[in-house]
Amino acid sequence: MTKYPMTVQGAKALEEEHAHLTKVVRPKLSQDIGTARELGDLKENAEYHAAREQQGMVEARIRDIEGRMQNAVIIDVTTIPHTGKVIFGTTVEIANVETDESVVYHIVGEDEADFKLGKISVGSPLARALIAKEEGDVVAVKTPGGVIEYEIVEVRHI
């Protein structure tokens, strides 16, 4: 089985979601299914079928989280020495060489990536180009619109 890196924060978020689904959502759905069963004929019971469908989705998500946690290598980035290089868990500010537009990204595990929150997967083309580089380095990233060059403005180990 392939192992995937995950930050401590990412693991904690998955554990919290798992706990919520197993301790709050799952029991409520079981109760909803029981209540819907009491309404009579199951063939035409929309409440029953909706609750069963929801239960299936919740159970699938629980299994998904368990699988992800089983295949995770949890890395406490606070214990990694600060070398000034971009590594897993660092936050990096980059500037587009052509437009001088800057953006900040946190390099995280695949399961934690959320582009809207500035979290990019360590396996993404941008993160792969940045890994092992340091402030002042320029990297070229191949995008659907062509190659874009970025200068590394700052590397932070948070």
UniProtKB/TrEMBL annotation:
Keywords: DNA-binding, Elongation factor, Protein biosynthesis, Transcription, Transcription regulation. Residues 5-74 form the Transcription elongation factor GreA/GreB N-terminal domain. GO terms for molecular function: DNA binding; RNA polymerase binding; translation elongation factor activity. The gene is greA. GO terms for biological process: DNA-templated transcription elongation; regulation of DNA-templated transcription elongation. Coiled coil: none annotated. Residues 83-156 form the Transcription elongation factor GreA/GreB C-terminal domain. Belongs to the GreA/GreB family. This is Transcription elongation factor GreA. Necessary for efficient RNA polymerase transcription elongation past template-encoded arresting sites. The arresting sites in DNA have the property of trapping a certain fraction of elongating RNA polymerases that pass through, resulting in locked ternary complexes. Cleavage of the nascent transcript by cleavage factors such as GreA or GreB allows the resumption of elongation from the new 3'terminus. GreA releases sequences of 2 to 3 nucleotides. InterPro entries: GreA/GreB_C_sf, TF_GreA/GreB_CS, Tscrpt_elong_fac_GreA, Tscrpt_elong_fac_GreA/B, Tscrpt_elong_fac_GreA/B_C, Tscrpt_elong_fac_GreA/B_fam, Tscrpt_elong_fac_GreA/B_N, Tscrpt_elong_fac_GreA/B_N_sf. It comes from Pseudomonas veronii. Pfam families: GreA_GreB (PF01272), GreA_GreB_N (PF03449). HAMAP family: GreA_GreB. PROSITE patterns: GREAB_1, GREAB_2. The keyword Transcription regulation applies. The lineage of its organism: Bacteria, Pseudomonadati, Pseudomonadota, Gammaproteobacteria, Pseudomonadales.
